[in-house]
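Below is how a single chain appears once it has passed through the pipeline. First comes the sequence as given, then the structure the pipeline wrote out for it. We keep one example in the README because the format questions we get most often are answered faster by looking than by reading.
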Amino acid sequence: MHTTPLTRTLAAGAVLALATAGLAGCTIDSGMGSDGAAGAGEDRTDGMGDDGVFTVAAFTAGYATPGGKLTLDDFVEKASAHDDWKVTLYTSQFDYDKINSDVQTAITQGADAILAGFPDPRQIAPLVQAAQAAGIPIFSIDGGVEPNDDFVVDVTFGQQQLAELTVGGLEEAMGGLDGANVMVIGHDPHIGIQTRSGIAVELLEEGGATIAGGEMKQALDPGTGRTEALNFVTDYLQANPDGLDGVWVGWDDAALGAVQAIEEAGRDDIFVTGVDALAETAEKIAADSPMYASAAQDWIAVVDEVVAYMEDYASSAALPDEIFVEVDAQLVDPSNVDEFEPTLGVAE
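Resulting structure:
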């Protein structure tokens, strides 16, 4: 049984093209039981379907974001490199009604396992119920901030550490938090961003900073977060030319919008931190721009870990020992950006 995070190398296999049509195969009993409880599959010898194919329904509602697309594309490539796996990816632009409908259909058509990419646990109850009723395990990437029995495993980054790293980076850039005016940009529908943004506000206020505008700014859609952040910062600077020292942003795409606004205003005394460490972000950090630091979430390594768990299940019906695995991020800033090799968002 696979238990060690971020260490297992994927087995080689022939590349299988991503299926674009509906899933095929027979619905199987995973031995998990109707409540989806992990570990109750002793009567199974593998997780394969009756047709000898491991049919995976992968989904994300966040495919419009750079991190979401790159992570799920990487999963599809690595999972499909097994000649006895069949993978279909279902996406939407944060339309969970579509996701629930698509995945429930995949379940009825014979999925053997589900990969949840950046799911909001609050919005996937219909597909979770269908999976549990059919005894199909759900493997998750970034599916919440605490253990959740809906998933046989959820691999994610610790939100406390992400907030501490990035607030610390902003403190260093500004020369301290006490008396600083800091804009915070979050997105509450994403539970991870919501959690780390709330922690960031607490850390900033504890350090003596003032939250610009009196409260956190909320992006409506991560897919348009860059434009929304650009507008937040532009409008604030126009109304308060000397009232901003830093911008803490919950994810890099929006952070880059804040950087653009600061650059367009001709300022070099306002600093930005983000989370993701996209290739574009690293370039901005290296260029001595307002983008000072970002927490690198190595989603490629997380994909490797989750695929390894799924390999174990496909080959032996083994489920992970832990249902919630937190891994650490790395702060990328001027001190180490030249050595940093981005795994997400290679600039085109």
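The two ends are 39 Å apart (CA to CA).

See the next section for the split statistics.
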